[in-house]
Design a protein that fits this description.
Length: 527
Protein backbone atom coordinates (compact mmCIF):
# COMPACT_ATOMS: atom_id res chain seq x y z
CA UNK A 1 0.00 0.00 0.00
CA UNK A 2 1.47 3.35 -1.00
CA UNK A 3 1.68 6.42 1.22
CA UNK A 4 -1.29 8.13 -0.46
CA UNK A 5 -3.64 5.24 0.27
CA UNK A 6 -2.37 5.00 3.86
CA UNK A 7 -3.12 8.68 4.31
CA UNK A 8 -6.61 8.22 2.89
CA UNK A 9 -7.31 5.41 5.36
CA UNK A 10 -6.06 7.52 8.28
CA UNK A 11 -8.28 10.44 7.25
CA UNK A 12 -11.31 8.22 6.80
CA UNK A 13 -10.83 6.62 10.22
CA UNK A 14 -10.35 10.03 11.80
CA UNK A 15 -13.46 11.39 10.08
CA UNK A 16 -15.50 8.43 11.27
CA UNK A 17 -14.35 8.98 14.85
CA UNK A 18 -15.31 12.61 14.59
CA UNK A 19 -18.87 11.82 13.51
CA UNK A 20 -19.37 9.23 16.21
CA UNK A 21 -20.04 6.61 13.52
CA UNK A 22 -18.82 3.09 14.24
CA UNK A 23 -15.59 2.45 12.34
CA UNK A 24 -15.22 -0.80 10.42
CA UNK A 25 -12.02 -2.83 10.09
CA UNK A 26 -12.22 -2.32 6.32
CA UNK A 27 -11.59 1.40 6.85
CA UNK A 28 -8.27 0.88 8.65
CA UNK A 29 -6.29 -0.21 5.58
CA UNK A 30 -5.98 -3.91 6.44
CA UNK A 31 -5.40 -6.45 3.68
CA UNK A 32 -8.09 -8.93 2.68
CA UNK A 33 -6.54 -12.03 4.36
CA UNK A 34 -6.38 -10.18 7.68
CA UNK A 35 -9.94 -8.88 7.33
CA UNK A 36 -11.12 -12.44 6.74
CA UNK A 37 -9.19 -13.66 9.77
CA UNK A 38 -10.64 -10.91 11.95
CA UNK A 39 -14.14 -11.73 10.78
CA UNK A 40 -13.63 -15.47 11.35
CA UNK A 41 -12.50 -14.70 14.91
CA UNK A 42 -15.86 -13.03 15.56
CA UNK A 43 -14.75 -9.39 15.66
CA UNK A 44 -17.26 -7.04 14.09
CA UNK A 45 -15.79 -3.62 14.77
CA UNK A 46 -12.41 -2.36 16.05
CA UNK A 47 -11.88 -1.09 19.56
CA UNK A 48 -10.79 2.53 20.12
CA UNK A 49 -7.12 1.59 20.50
CA UNK A 50 -7.28 -0.36 17.23
CA UNK A 51 -8.94 2.52 15.39
CA UNK A 52 -6.25 4.92 16.56
CA UNK A 53 -3.15 2.70 16.38
CA UNK A 54 -3.56 0.47 13.32
CA UNK A 55 -3.40 3.15 10.55
CA UNK A 56 -0.16 4.82 11.75
CA UNK A 57 1.39 1.44 12.52
CA UNK A 58 0.60 0.30 8.97
CA UNK A 59 2.25 3.47 7.72
CA UNK A 60 5.45 2.57 9.57
CA UNK A 61 5.14 5.28 12.22
CA UNK A 62 6.23 4.82 15.82
CA UNK A 63 3.26 4.56 18.19
CA UNK A 64 2.99 5.37 21.89
CA UNK A 65 -0.12 3.63 23.22
CA UNK A 66 -1.46 4.40 26.69
CA UNK A 67 -3.73 1.44 27.18
CA UNK A 68 -4.21 -1.46 29.54
CA UNK A 69 -4.49 -5.10 28.63
CA UNK A 70 -8.09 -5.84 27.78
CA UNK A 71 -8.56 -2.88 25.45
CA UNK A 72 -7.72 -4.79 22.27
CA UNK A 73 -4.15 -3.56 21.99
CA UNK A 74 -2.73 -6.96 20.99
CA UNK A 75 -4.62 -6.82 17.69
CA UNK A 76 -3.62 -3.16 17.42
CA UNK A 77 -0.01 -4.20 16.93
CA UNK A 78 -0.38 -7.80 15.66
CA UNK A 79 -2.43 -6.92 12.57
CA UNK A 80 -0.08 -4.19 11.31
CA UNK A 81 2.95 -6.40 11.98
CA UNK A 82 1.51 -9.24 9.92
CA UNK A 83 0.61 -6.95 7.04
CA UNK A 84 3.96 -5.18 6.98
CA UNK A 85 5.97 -8.39 7.23
CA UNK A 86 4.11 -9.93 4.30
CA UNK A 87 5.81 -7.19 2.29
CA UNK A 88 9.16 -7.11 4.11
CA UNK A 89 9.73 -10.87 4.39
CA UNK A 90 12.14 -12.41 1.93
CA UNK A 91 12.69 -15.99 0.81
CA UNK A 92 14.70 -16.87 3.91
CA UNK A 93 13.00 -16.38 7.26
CA UNK A 94 14.68 -14.01 9.73
CA UNK A 95 13.45 -12.31 12.88
CA UNK A 96 11.91 -9.08 11.64
CA UNK A 97 9.51 -8.41 14.51
CA UNK A 98 10.16 -8.75 18.25
CA UNK A 99 7.39 -8.44 20.85
CA UNK A 100 8.70 -8.11 24.40
CA UNK A 101 6.22 -8.80 27.19
CA UNK A 102 6.66 -9.29 30.95
CA UNK A 103 4.94 -12.63 31.66
CA UNK A 104 4.81 -16.06 30.12
CA UNK A 105 1.02 -16.07 30.00
CA UNK A 106 0.83 -12.76 28.17
CA UNK A 107 3.48 -14.04 25.77
CA UNK A 108 1.42 -17.16 25.09
CA UNK A 109 -1.74 -15.13 24.56
CA UNK A 110 0.03 -12.84 22.11
CA UNK A 111 1.28 -15.92 20.28
CA UNK A 112 -2.27 -17.19 20.05
CA UNK A 113 -3.35 -13.88 18.54
CA UNK A 114 -0.70 -14.18 15.83
CA UNK A 115 -2.02 -17.67 15.15
CA UNK A 116 -5.58 -16.43 14.87
CA UNK A 117 -4.85 -13.52 12.54
CA UNK A 118 -2.03 -14.96 10.46
CA UNK A 119 -3.37 -18.36 9.45
CA UNK A 120 -3.42 -17.50 5.75
CA UNK A 121 0.00 -15.83 5.65
CA UNK A 122 3.32 -17.48 4.87
CA UNK A 123 5.01 -16.26 8.04
CA UNK A 124 6.34 -18.08 11.09
CA UNK A 125 6.38 -17.15 14.76
CA UNK A 126 7.35 -18.66 18.08
CA UNK A 127 7.08 -17.76 21.76
CA UNK A 128 9.95 -18.08 24.24
CA UNK A 129 9.95 -17.61 28.00
CA UNK A 130 11.77 -18.89 31.05
CA UNK A 131 10.92 -21.57 33.55
CA UNK A 132 11.08 -24.31 30.90
CA UNK A 133 13.91 -26.11 29.16
CA UNK A 134 15.33 -24.00 26.33
CA UNK A 135 16.21 -26.75 23.84
CA UNK A 136 12.82 -26.94 22.08
CA UNK A 137 12.82 -23.16 21.80
CA UNK A 138 16.34 -23.21 20.36
CA UNK A 139 15.36 -25.80 17.75
CA UNK A 140 12.41 -23.63 16.71
CA UNK A 141 14.62 -20.55 16.42
CA UNK A 142 17.17 -22.42 14.32
CA UNK A 143 14.51 -23.54 11.86
CA UNK A 144 13.75 -19.89 11.17
CA UNK A 145 10.98 -17.52 12.25
CA UNK A 146 9.72 -14.10 11.24
CA UNK A 147 8.11 -13.00 14.52
CA UNK A 148 9.45 -13.62 18.02
CA UNK A 149 7.37 -13.12 21.17
CA UNK A 150 9.59 -13.19 24.25
CA UNK A 151 9.99 -12.39 27.91
CA UNK A 152 13.14 -10.44 28.78
CA UNK A 153 15.20 -12.96 30.75
CA UNK A 154 14.95 -15.90 28.37
CA UNK A 155 15.57 -13.62 25.40
CA UNK A 156 18.80 -12.35 26.95
CA UNK A 157 19.86 -15.91 27.74
CA UNK A 158 19.39 -17.05 24.14
CA UNK A 159 20.99 -13.92 22.72
CA UNK A 160 23.99 -14.65 24.95
CA UNK A 161 24.12 -18.19 23.56
CA UNK A 162 24.08 -16.87 20.01
CA UNK A 163 20.68 -18.39 19.25
CA UNK A 164 18.81 -15.14 18.55
CA UNK A 165 19.91 -12.86 15.73
CA UNK A 166 18.18 -9.47 15.63
CA UNK A 167 20.21 -8.02 12.77
CA UNK A 168 17.22 -7.89 10.41
CA UNK A 169 14.75 -6.59 12.97
CA UNK A 170 12.32 -4.08 11.47
CA UNK A 171 9.58 -3.80 14.15
CA UNK A 172 9.95 -3.76 17.93
CA UNK A 173 6.98 -3.91 20.30
CA UNK A 174 7.39 -3.21 24.01
CA UNK A 175 4.20 -4.35 25.71
CA UNK A 176 3.15 -3.62 29.30
CA UNK A 177 6.15 -1.36 29.86
CA UNK A 178 5.03 -0.18 33.30
CA UNK A 179 4.59 -3.78 34.41
CA UNK A 180 8.14 -4.46 33.28
CA UNK A 181 9.18 -1.73 35.72
CA UNK A 182 7.03 -3.11 38.56
CA UNK A 183 8.40 -6.62 38.12
CA UNK A 184 12.04 -5.54 38.10
CA UNK A 185 12.71 -6.17 34.40
CA UNK A 186 13.46 -2.60 33.35
CA UNK A 187 17.23 -3.13 33.33
CA UNK A 188 16.86 -6.27 31.21
CA UNK A 189 14.67 -4.27 28.82
CA UNK A 190 17.33 -1.56 28.53
CA UNK A 191 19.98 -4.20 27.80
CA UNK A 192 17.81 -5.63 25.03
CA UNK A 193 17.10 -2.20 23.54
CA UNK A 194 20.85 -1.57 23.19
CA UNK A 195 21.12 -4.71 21.05
CA UNK A 196 18.45 -3.66 18.56
CA UNK A 197 19.13 -1.99 15.21
CA UNK A 198 18.92 1.79 15.32
CA UNK A 199 16.61 1.94 12.34
CA UNK A 200 13.31 0.23 13.16
CA UNK A 201 9.66 0.90 13.88
CA UNK A 202 8.77 0.90 17.59
CA UNK A 203 5.32 0.32 19.07
CA UNK A 204 5.34 1.13 22.79
CA UNK A 205 2.43 0.26 25.09
CA UNK A 206 1.99 1.06 28.77
CA UNK A 207 -1.01 1.49 31.05
CA UNK A 208 0.73 4.28 32.98
CA UNK A 209 3.69 6.53 32.33
CA UNK A 210 5.89 6.81 35.44
CA UNK A 211 9.14 8.81 35.01
CA UNK A 212 11.34 5.78 34.23
CA UNK A 213 8.93 4.68 31.51
CA UNK A 214 8.75 8.20 30.07
CA UNK A 215 12.55 8.25 29.83
CA UNK A 216 12.57 4.83 28.16
CA UNK A 217 9.91 5.89 25.66
CA UNK A 218 11.75 9.12 24.83
CA UNK A 219 14.87 7.15 24.01
CA UNK A 220 13.07 4.60 21.86
CA UNK A 221 10.46 6.52 19.91
CA UNK A 222 10.92 8.85 16.96
CA UNK A 223 8.11 11.36 16.41
CA UNK A 224 5.52 8.87 17.68
CA UNK A 225 1.78 8.98 17.20
CA UNK A 226 0.30 9.05 20.70
CA UNK A 227 -2.94 7.14 21.27
CA UNK A 228 -4.72 6.83 24.59
CA UNK A 229 -7.86 4.97 25.64
CA UNK A 230 -9.70 4.57 28.92
CA UNK A 231 -10.42 0.94 29.81
CA UNK A 232 -13.79 -0.27 30.99
CA UNK A 233 -13.79 -0.46 34.79
CA UNK A 234 -17.37 -0.73 36.02
CA UNK A 235 -19.89 -3.54 36.05
CA UNK A 236 -23.63 -3.08 35.59
CA UNK A 237 -25.51 -2.71 38.85
CA UNK A 238 -28.21 -5.08 37.64
CA UNK A 239 -25.71 -7.98 37.60
CA UNK A 240 -25.39 -9.86 40.91
CA UNK A 241 -21.88 -11.23 41.37
CA UNK A 242 -20.88 -14.24 43.48
CA UNK A 243 -17.57 -15.98 44.10
CA UNK A 244 -16.73 -19.57 45.02
CA UNK A 245 -13.30 -20.43 46.41
CA UNK A 246 -12.66 -24.00 45.24
CA UNK A 247 -9.71 -26.27 44.51
CA UNK A 248 -8.86 -26.62 40.84
CA UNK A 249 -9.66 -30.34 40.73
CA UNK A 250 -13.12 -29.73 42.23
CA UNK A 251 -14.21 -27.06 39.75
CA UNK A 252 -16.08 -29.38 37.39
CA UNK A 253 -17.87 -31.14 40.22
CA UNK A 254 -18.96 -27.79 41.62
CA UNK A 255 -20.09 -26.70 38.16
CA UNK A 256 -22.35 -29.72 37.85
CA UNK A 257 -23.68 -29.09 41.35
CA UNK A 258 -24.64 -25.54 40.44
CA UNK A 259 -26.14 -26.47 37.06
CA UNK A 260 -28.44 -29.03 38.70
CA UNK A 261 -30.58 -26.05 39.70
CA UNK A 262 -33.29 -25.70 37.00
CA UNK A 263 -33.37 -21.94 37.57
CA UNK A 264 -30.01 -21.76 35.84
CA UNK A 265 -31.37 -22.38 32.40
CA UNK A 266 -29.29 -20.33 29.93
CA UNK A 267 -25.65 -20.15 31.01
CA UNK A 268 -22.48 -19.00 29.31
CA UNK A 269 -19.39 -20.63 30.85
CA UNK A 270 -15.93 -19.13 30.21
CA UNK A 271 -12.84 -21.33 30.01
CA UNK A 272 -9.32 -19.97 29.72
CA UNK A 273 -8.21 -22.60 27.19
CA UNK A 274 -9.63 -24.43 24.21
CA UNK A 275 -8.80 -27.85 25.60
CA UNK A 276 -10.27 -26.87 28.95
CA UNK A 277 -13.54 -25.93 27.22
CA UNK A 278 -13.69 -29.34 25.56
CA UNK A 279 -13.11 -31.15 28.85
CA UNK A 280 -15.85 -29.13 30.57
CA UNK A 281 -18.34 -30.13 27.86
CA UNK A 282 -17.31 -33.80 28.09
CA UNK A 283 -17.83 -33.75 31.84
CA UNK A 284 -21.20 -32.02 31.59
CA UNK A 285 -22.37 -34.49 28.97
CA UNK A 286 -21.51 -37.38 31.28
CA UNK A 287 -23.54 -35.65 34.01
CA UNK A 288 -26.54 -35.41 31.66
CA UNK A 289 -26.31 -31.65 31.11
CA UNK A 290 -26.55 -30.73 27.39
CA UNK A 291 -23.79 -28.32 26.39
CA UNK A 292 -21.47 -27.32 23.55
CA UNK A 293 -18.13 -25.56 23.21
CA UNK A 294 -17.00 -22.83 20.84
CA UNK A 295 -13.35 -21.88 20.40
CA UNK A 296 -10.74 -21.30 17.73
CA UNK A 297 -10.20 -24.99 16.97
CA UNK A 298 -13.85 -25.51 16.08
CA UNK A 299 -14.86 -25.12 12.44
CA UNK A 300 -17.12 -22.24 11.51
CA UNK A 301 -19.97 -24.68 10.90
CA UNK A 302 -19.49 -26.30 14.31
CA UNK A 303 -19.49 -22.91 16.03
CA UNK A 304 -22.63 -21.83 14.19
CA UNK A 305 -24.40 -25.07 15.14
CA UNK A 306 -23.43 -24.62 18.79
CA UNK A 307 -24.64 -21.01 18.85
CA UNK A 308 -27.90 -21.90 17.15
CA UNK A 309 -28.51 -24.73 19.63
CA UNK A 310 -27.87 -22.32 22.48
CA UNK A 311 -30.13 -19.62 21.06
CA UNK A 312 -32.95 -22.08 20.42
CA UNK A 313 -32.61 -23.52 23.96
CA UNK A 314 -31.73 -26.99 22.66
CA UNK A 315 -28.77 -26.76 25.02
CA UNK A 316 -28.71 -24.72 28.21
CA UNK A 317 -24.94 -24.34 28.58
CA UNK A 318 -22.45 -22.86 26.12
CA UNK A 319 -18.75 -23.09 27.01
CA UNK A 320 -16.51 -20.53 25.31
CA UNK A 321 -13.04 -19.04 25.30
CA UNK A 322 -12.69 -15.27 25.34
CA UNK A 323 -11.66 -14.96 21.70
CA UNK A 324 -14.52 -17.15 20.44
CA UNK A 325 -17.02 -15.33 22.66
CA UNK A 326 -16.26 -11.99 20.99
CA UNK A 327 -18.84 -12.80 18.32
CA UNK A 328 -21.59 -13.82 20.74
CA UNK A 329 -24.54 -11.44 20.95
CA UNK A 330 -27.38 -13.39 22.53
CA UNK A 331 -30.20 -11.94 24.59
CA UNK A 332 -31.62 -13.86 27.51
CA UNK A 333 -28.39 -15.21 29.02
CA UNK A 334 -29.38 -15.59 32.67
CA UNK A 335 -25.99 -16.56 34.05
CA UNK A 336 -22.34 -16.08 33.19
CA UNK A 337 -19.99 -18.47 34.95
CA UNK A 338 -16.23 -17.88 35.07
CA UNK A 339 -14.90 -21.43 35.32
CA UNK A 340 -11.42 -19.85 35.17
CA UNK A 341 -10.90 -16.32 36.44
CA UNK A 342 -9.31 -14.16 33.73
CA UNK A 343 -5.83 -12.82 34.39
CA UNK A 344 -6.89 -9.52 32.79
CA UNK A 345 -9.39 -7.75 35.07
CA UNK A 346 -11.06 -5.86 32.21
CA UNK A 347 -11.88 -9.22 30.66
CA UNK A 348 -13.96 -10.03 33.74
CA UNK A 349 -16.06 -6.93 33.13
CA UNK A 350 -16.54 -7.86 29.47
CA UNK A 351 -17.46 -11.44 30.34
CA UNK A 352 -20.14 -10.74 32.91
CA UNK A 353 -21.60 -8.05 30.69
CA UNK A 354 -22.99 -10.87 28.53
CA UNK A 355 -25.82 -11.20 31.02
CA UNK A 356 -28.14 -8.49 32.30
CA UNK A 357 -28.62 -6.95 28.86
CA UNK A 358 -31.50 -4.80 27.63
CA UNK A 359 -32.51 -3.83 31.16
CA UNK A 360 -32.78 -7.42 32.38
CA UNK A 361 -31.10 -8.64 35.54
CA UNK A 362 -28.35 -11.22 35.45
CA UNK A 363 -26.11 -13.30 37.68
CA UNK A 364 -22.34 -13.77 37.38
CA UNK A 365 -20.71 -16.68 39.20
CA UNK A 366 -16.95 -17.13 39.43
CA UNK A 367 -14.73 -19.99 40.57
CA UNK A 368 -11.39 -19.06 42.13
CA UNK A 369 -8.70 -21.64 42.83
CA UNK A 370 -5.55 -21.08 44.82
CA UNK A 371 -3.50 -19.87 41.84
CA UNK A 372 -6.17 -17.40 40.73
CA UNK A 373 -6.44 -15.40 43.94
CA UNK A 374 -4.17 -12.65 42.63
CA UNK A 375 -6.50 -12.29 39.63
CA UNK A 376 -9.39 -11.77 42.05
CA UNK A 377 -7.46 -9.01 43.76
CA UNK A 378 -6.92 -7.21 40.45
CA UNK A 379 -10.59 -7.64 39.46
CA UNK A 380 -11.92 -6.26 42.73
CA UNK A 381 -9.60 -3.26 42.59
CA UNK A 382 -10.71 -2.54 39.04
CA UNK A 383 -14.46 -2.69 39.77
CA UNK A 384 -13.98 -0.98 43.14
CA UNK A 385 -15.88 -3.48 45.27
CA UNK A 386 -15.72 -6.96 46.75
CA UNK A 387 -17.47 -9.82 45.01
CA UNK A 388 -19.84 -11.62 47.40
CA UNK A 389 -18.39 -14.91 48.62
CA UNK A 390 -20.39 -18.12 48.70
CA UNK A 391 -19.21 -20.21 51.64
CA UNK A 392 -21.74 -23.02 51.99
CA UNK A 393 -21.03 -25.01 48.82
CA UNK A 394 -20.04 -28.71 49.03
CA UNK A 395 -16.46 -28.29 47.76
CA UNK A 396 -14.67 -25.84 50.07
CA UNK A 397 -11.03 -25.07 49.27
CA UNK A 398 -8.22 -26.91 51.03
CA UNK A 399 -6.48 -23.58 51.74
CA UNK A 400 -8.27 -20.95 53.87
CA UNK A 401 -9.87 -18.14 51.86
CA UNK A 402 -7.73 -15.00 51.61
CA UNK A 403 -8.31 -11.82 53.52
CA UNK A 404 -10.43 -9.16 51.81
CA UNK A 405 -8.79 -7.22 49.02
CA UNK A 406 -7.50 -3.77 49.91
CA UNK A 407 -9.39 -1.87 47.24
CA UNK A 408 -7.30 1.30 47.43
CA UNK A 409 -3.59 0.49 47.86
CA UNK A 410 -1.64 3.01 49.88
CA UNK A 411 -0.13 5.76 47.81
CA UNK A 412 3.27 4.80 46.49
CA UNK A 413 2.79 1.13 47.30
CA UNK A 414 3.88 -1.23 44.57
CA UNK A 415 1.62 -4.18 43.82
CA UNK A 416 3.49 -6.32 41.29
CA UNK A 417 2.24 -9.80 40.59
CA UNK A 418 4.04 -12.52 42.56
CA UNK A 419 7.21 -13.85 40.93
CA UNK A 420 7.63 -17.52 41.54
CA UNK A 421 6.17 -19.85 44.05
CA UNK A 422 4.50 -17.70 46.69
CA UNK A 423 0.77 -18.03 47.07
CA UNK A 424 -0.97 -14.99 45.63
CA UNK A 425 -2.99 -12.98 48.04
CA UNK A 426 -6.23 -11.18 47.48
CA UNK A 427 -9.88 -11.89 47.76
CA UNK A 428 -13.30 -10.54 48.33
CA UNK A 429 -15.15 -9.34 51.42
CA UNK A 430 -17.00 -12.17 53.14
CA UNK A 431 -20.69 -11.73 52.73
CA UNK A 432 -21.79 -14.90 54.47
CA UNK A 433 -24.98 -16.24 53.21
CA UNK A 434 -26.47 -18.78 50.99
CA UNK A 435 -25.46 -20.02 47.64
CA UNK A 436 -27.12 -18.14 44.74
CA UNK A 437 -29.18 -20.35 42.47
CA UNK A 438 -27.22 -23.41 43.53
CA UNK A 439 -28.19 -27.05 43.26
CA UNK A 440 -27.60 -30.39 44.82
CA UNK A 441 -24.37 -32.33 44.91
CA UNK A 442 -23.63 -33.88 41.50
CA UNK A 443 -24.52 -37.51 41.01
CA UNK A 444 -21.99 -40.08 39.86
CA UNK A 445 -18.69 -39.49 38.19
CA UNK A 446 -15.19 -39.55 39.46
CA UNK A 447 -13.12 -36.68 40.66
CA UNK A 448 -12.17 -34.74 37.53
CA UNK A 449 -8.69 -33.58 36.81
CA UNK A 450 -8.18 -29.90 36.02
CA UNK A 451 -6.20 -28.15 33.43
CA UNK A 452 -5.15 -29.44 30.08
CA UNK A 453 -3.21 -27.64 27.42
CA UNK A 454 -4.84 -25.96 24.46
CA UNK A 455 -5.08 -27.76 21.17
CA UNK A 456 -4.32 -26.53 17.71
CA UNK A 457 -1.62 -24.79 15.77
CA UNK A 458 0.48 -21.93 16.95
CA UNK A 459 1.33 -23.59 20.24
CA UNK A 460 4.00 -21.62 22.10
CA UNK A 461 7.25 -23.51 21.98
CA UNK A 462 8.72 -24.53 25.29
CA UNK A 463 5.84 -23.64 27.52
CA UNK A 464 3.01 -24.70 29.68
CA UNK A 465 -0.60 -24.30 28.67
CA UNK A 466 -1.73 -21.03 27.30
CA UNK A 467 -3.99 -20.57 30.26
CA UNK A 468 -1.61 -21.03 33.15
CA UNK A 469 -0.93 -18.46 35.81
CA UNK A 470 1.29 -15.66 34.53
CA UNK A 471 4.78 -15.74 35.85
CA UNK A 472 7.11 -13.03 34.80
CA UNK A 473 10.59 -14.40 34.57
CA UNK A 474 13.14 -13.59 37.14
CA UNK A 475 15.81 -11.22 35.89
CA UNK A 476 18.50 -12.85 33.79
CA UNK A 477 20.77 -15.20 35.67
CA UNK A 478 18.22 -16.08 38.35
CA UNK A 479 15.66 -18.14 36.44
CA UNK A 480 14.94 -21.77 37.08
CA UNK A 481 15.53 -23.98 34.09
CA UNK A 482 13.20 -26.82 34.99
CA UNK A 483 9.69 -27.33 33.72
CA UNK A 484 8.18 -29.39 30.99
CA UNK A 485 9.41 -28.64 27.46
CA UNK A 486 7.16 -27.99 24.52
CA UNK A 487 6.54 -30.72 22.01
CA UNK A 488 9.37 -31.10 19.53
CA UNK A 489 8.71 -30.54 15.89
CA UNK A 490 8.66 -33.71 13.79
CA UNK A 491 11.20 -33.56 11.02
CA UNK A 492 8.63 -34.87 8.56
CA UNK A 493 6.64 -31.67 9.02
CA UNK A 494 9.41 -29.45 7.71
CA UNK A 495 8.91 -27.92 4.27
CA UNK A 496 10.67 -29.74 1.46
CA UNK A 497 12.49 -26.55 0.52
CA UNK A 498 14.44 -26.45 3.79
CA UNK A 499 18.15 -26.00 3.59
CA UNK A 500 20.66 -26.75 6.37
CA UNK A 501 22.24 -23.97 8.38
CA UNK A 502 25.82 -24.00 9.56
CA UNK A 503 24.99 -26.29 12.49
CA UNK A 504 23.04 -28.70 10.31
CA UNK A 505 19.59 -27.55 11.44
CA UNK A 506 17.19 -27.08 8.51
CA UNK A 507 16.30 -23.44 7.87
CA UNK A 508 12.84 -22.62 6.55
CA UNK A 509 12.67 -21.13 3.11
CA UNK A 510 9.64 -19.71 1.41
CA UNK A 511 8.61 -20.93 -1.98
CA UNK A 512 8.68 -18.06 -4.38
CA UNK A 513 5.08 -17.11 -5.09
CA UNK A 514 3.94 -19.67 -2.54
CA UNK A 515 2.14 -17.49 -0.02
CA UNK A 516 -0.33 -19.34 2.12
CA UNK A 517 1.66 -22.61 2.21
CA UNK A 518 0.94 -24.49 5.42
CA UNK A 519 4.06 -25.11 7.53
CA UNK A 520 2.79 -28.36 9.05
CA UNK A 521 0.87 -29.13 12.23
CA UNK A 522 3.69 -28.46 14.65
CA UNK A 523 5.25 -25.50 12.88
CA UNK A 524 3.00 -22.56 13.73
CA UNK A 525 2.35 -19.91 11.15
CA UNK A 526 2.16 -16.43 12.51
CA UNK A 527 -0.74 -17.24 14.50
Amino acid sequence: MDGTRRGEHRLRAKAARGTGRAVKFEELGLAAPLLRAVSAAGYESPTPIQVQAIPPALAGRDVLGIAQTGTGKTAAFALPILQRLEVLAKDDSAIRALILTPTRELAAQIGESFETYGKKLDLYHTVIFGGVKPNPQIRELREGIDILVATPGRLLDLIGQGEVDLTDLAIFVLDEADRMLDMGFIHDVKRIVKLLPKKKQTLFFSATMPPDIVDLANGLLHEPIRVEVTPVSSTAERIDQYLYFVDKNDKRRLLVDILKDPKIHHTLVFSRTKHGANRIVEYLDKAGIPSAAIHGNKSQNARERALEAFKSRDIRVLVATDIAARGIDIDGITHVLNFDLPNVPETYVHRIGRTGRAGASGIALSFCDDEEREYLRDIERLIGKHVDRVTDHPYPPSAPPPTPTELSPKKGASTPRPQGGGRPQGGGRPQGGGRPQGGGRPQGGGRPQGGGRPQGGGRPQGGGPQGERPQGERPAGERASADRPAADRASADRPSADRPTGDGTPKRRRRRGGRGRGPGPSAPRTS
